[in-house]
Amino acid sequence: MHDILQQVATNAMATGPATLLQGMQLRRPIDVVKTAALSADDKRTILAGWASDFYAVDSKPTFRHIPGTPEPVPIDEIHSALAELDRRYGF
Question: In the chain, how many domains are there?
Fold first, then answer.
């Protein structure tokens, strides 16, 4: 049973931010902040997920890549987008 739960959690993590991005043309973290189609909470969820180690690029630990985006981005770019989100929404 534990293996099944672990697989479900892994699958949810793998598709989490990508599910929210479906149908959107978001290429960079700042695009998440700028889009009007997402709530502030969804934006924070996407960016926090994008920043997680789960999406770290092998042999490039300072880069993250989530499914649905064209290329890896530096973690600093994600942190900058989170700071901008905080500034805009007063988190």
Answer: 1
